[in-house]
Amino acid sequence: MLKVTNLHASVDGKEILRGINLEVKAGEVHAIMGPNGSGKSTLASVLAGNEKFTVTEGSMEFLGEELQALSIEDRARMGLFLGFQYPVEIPGVTMANFMKLAVNEQRKFRGEEPLSAGEFLKLMREKAKIVELDSKLTARAVNEGFSGGEKKKNEIFQMAMLDPKLAILDETDSGLDIDALRIVATGVTKLHTEENATVVITHYQRLLDYIVPDFVHVLYQGRIIYTGDKSLALKLEKEGYDWLINDYKE
Amino acid sequence: MSVNDYIASLQRVERTTLRVEESVAEPQVVLNPASLAVEVAAGAKLRMVVVHDDPTTADLRFTLAEGAQVEMVELFRAEAFAEMQVEQAASSRFKLTTVELGAARAAYTINLNGAFAESEVNGVLTVGDKEHAVMHLRTNHNVADCHSSSVVRGLAGGEAVGEFRGMVYVSPDAQRTDAYQQNRNMLLSETARIDTLPQLEIYADDVKCSHGATVGQMDQEALYYMRQRGLSEAQARRVQLAGFVGDLVMQCGCEELCAALLAALEHKLERI
Q: Closest partner residue to B243 among A72, A87, A91, by Cβ?
């Protein structure tokens, strides 16, 4: 589904990603861990097409297409979803209107008819349940005045609405209390199928108690320096990163 | 429904003076008034839509008796110069939604003359090309216990110029005044300009007054966020702009008219 090869990317002339190799297949869950500043969020942003970053080398193939040739919106319409670490507030735009536009744009891309108002409302009610999102929030402006937990639930709600092929969740667990973490994580688990794939970027093992990864990668200084199975996350939680990164310290 | 369809369906006021003794449910429409004096009797309620389609001057005066209510929408579709003066007796309520869809000049003076009078102004100005729009708003708290709120948003693109000047005056007797004034603006090009001058002049000591003004650009993070969900860049821009001014016009009090105003704004925004 996703094949990243020797990916280099920089921001303001500073190289952040320095040769990432990563392959994600349908049905898989990958966790990306690593110390602060190692490039985890940059990787997510570069895959999504954030224009702040420049790809200087390498390739990113998604469903057989080179992502660099595609706009942010076309990547999204192909089924690439990014759960934002810091969801953005959009004053004056209701969540319901925003989602209706997004869902129908994505349907149009796939050659499907737009949803009727009734169908859309039904879909929204159904999907809001997955993350126990208060249905009143969909009448409010996008993320405006939402609590930290609501914002993150709202990201997973949008993921449920858009049903992506590949979801990249950038620290979706940060800033959540224990209950919200459980709701968000079980939401993601419910949405996982054999046809889609999930990449979770996280600092904490506790998220991975719910979302069991097939692979755990450690990103350090812009490279994946180690890949293991779910037990790696537990070992990192206990022992930290030092045993891994000592050899790489500059 | 367009604004034109909406106003065509309503009763037109052709006179230059109007006295409202009893509440009228239907909104009254006034087109291109040169001068209009409206008196609303105690406890009566009036809804009115004023549309400027000619580049003329307009002189409007509203007098609200005790407990009277006026809910008003003013729309500028031509470069009119309009002045409005509002005199409010005790417990009266005046609500204005004003939209400048291009070059225009509007100056409002609201006098809160009786206790517990309330005024609320929601204003939008949108200019492109070389248009120049001006909105001046002066609210005088002349007595104690009144409440005023003014929220104005400006959008300017091209080489356009927008100007907001707001003044909340609180007289020495006007204790327990509650006044709020906010002006937010967005520039859509490097050559557009918006001048904002929010002012407070307070001579009483037991008041709650706040004001603020900002001039910013389009939120690139929000555009990125919307595009990541599948909206095109143009769509994301439109959504953001409509959101910026939309929630103000959506409070205009009449759902059909709000929607028509928003559609007119969106039409304008496509051209900025």
A: A91
Q: Among B221, B244, B245, whose Cβ lies nearest the Cβ of A88? A: B221
| B243 and A CB contact within 8 Å | yes
Q: Which helix (H) or strand (E) holds B248?
A: helix B233-249
pTM of the model as a whole: 0.85
What is the residue range of A167's domain? 2-249
How far from A245 is each of A29, A38, A219, A233, B245, CA to CA, in Å? 24, 11, 10, 15, 51
Alpha-carbon separation of residue A52 from A49, A241, B147, B212, B222 (angstroms) = 9, 29, 46, 31, 14
Burial track B121-160 (b if 16+ CB lie within 10 A, e otherwise): bbbbbbbbeebbbbbbbbbbbbbbbbbbbbbbbbbbbbbb
For B231, the closest of A73, A82, A141 (CB atoms) is A73
Q: Is residue B24 helix, strand or coil?
A: coil
> A81–B228: do the CB atoms touch at under 8 Å?
yes
Nearest-Å Rg of the Cα atoms of chain A is 18
Which of A101, A106, A127, A155 is the mutation pick for testing B, counting most B CBs within 10 A?
Answer: A101
CATH number at residue A195: 3.40.50.300
In this prediction the ipTM stands at 0.95
More confident residue, A234 or A57: A57
Q: How confident is the model at residue A31 (pLDDT cuts 50, 70, 90)?
A: very high
- A89–B229 C-beta distance less than 8 A: no
